[in-house]
Design brief:
The chain is mainly alpha-helical. The protein contains 10 helices and 5 strands; from the N terminus they run αβαααααβββααααβ. The strands form 2 sheets. A 3-stranded antiparallel beta sheet has the order 2-4-3, with no helix packed on it. Strands 1-5 form a two-stranded antiparallel ribbon. It starts with a helix and ends with a strand.
Length: 259
């Protein structure tokens, strides 16, 4: 539980610490059109959730751009400013990597290698993939864990008292984590996929797409989620169905800036 609190504080601090902030958006539920008919409650769930996913991804892209700039600068044998070093170390810690000891580490090749590894982690999870998993794991926000614990992604923890007990299944060795807000749940989900050993395959697929000049694709990245669910290939099919039938295809066109 203590570790989870520390991680959540770090995630929130990273947002407060950033000088640059993306635009915040809203969505009018009445404008949501999907292949299958949705209830008004489902449309409201999407309208509330999608802008938050989009915003958190934009924060990640800001960090990614900073890391790219620092890497380019170092490769040109230019020195980072003190503020840039601090920000880079903040991002490294956010993504569960060791900070760079600037006072003692002078080997540029080692610094470049560390930043290259960071670039592998600092990237978005497609909005539609994130939304599909939130729908599946929380039952459109109706699960007890979503309502009482802001856990929309079925994220587990394994220390007694670290979260909510999963019903009457006394044999379970895990609990379901709780979060102070929906935003914190989204942030933790992103960090889990971007740093967890089990999702190395997802990150590799995404990195290869970037090398080809392509954006992360939800249908390709979902094949790297083998460890997320116990239902195997059926999970991929379920995600595909949710994306195709229950999510709007052009989400950016629905986003309205908040004044």
């Amino acid at each position: 539980m203590f570790i989870a609190i520390i991680i959540l504080v770090a995630l929130l601090f990273s947002c407060w610490n950033s000088e640059k902030q993306p635009v915040r958006y809203r969505i009018n539920p009445a404008k949501i059109v999907t292949r299958k008919n949705l209830t008004e409650t489902q449309k409201t769930f999407l309208a509330d959730f999608l802008p938050e996913i989009y915003y958190e991804n934009e924060l990640i892209l800001l960090d990614r751009k900073d890391v790219e700039n620092y890497l380019l600068k170092i490769r040109k044998n230019k020195r980072l400013k003190g503020k840039e070093k601090h920000n880079l170390n903040r991002i490294l810690l956010d993504y569960r990597m060791k900070r760079i000891p600037w006072d003692t580490l002078t080997d540029t090749s080692r610094i470049i290698k560390r930043i290259d590894s960071l670039m592998y982690r600092v990237d978005i999870i497609p909005v539609r993939l994130t939304m599909a998993q939130a729908i599946i794991e929380s039952g459109w926000g109706n699960s007890r864990f979503a309502k009482d614990g802001n856990n929309y992604f079925g994220i587990h923890c394994f220390s007694p008292g670290c979260g909510m007990k999963p019903g009457n299944h006394s044999g379970n060795r895990f609990e379901v984590m709780t979060f102070p807000s929906r935003t914190a749940s989204i942030q933790y989900y992103f960090r889990t996929l971007n740093t967890g050993y089990a999702y190395e395959g997802l990150r590799k697929i995404r990195a290869n797409l970037r090398k080809e000049g392509k954006n992360p694709d939800p249908f390709l990245l979902m094949t790297g989620l083998d460890s997320y669910s116990q239902i195997g290939d059926s999970y991929d099919r379920l995600i595909t169905k949710i994306i195709q039938d229950y999510l709007p295809q052009d989400i950016p066109s629905l986003l309205e800036p908040i004044d």
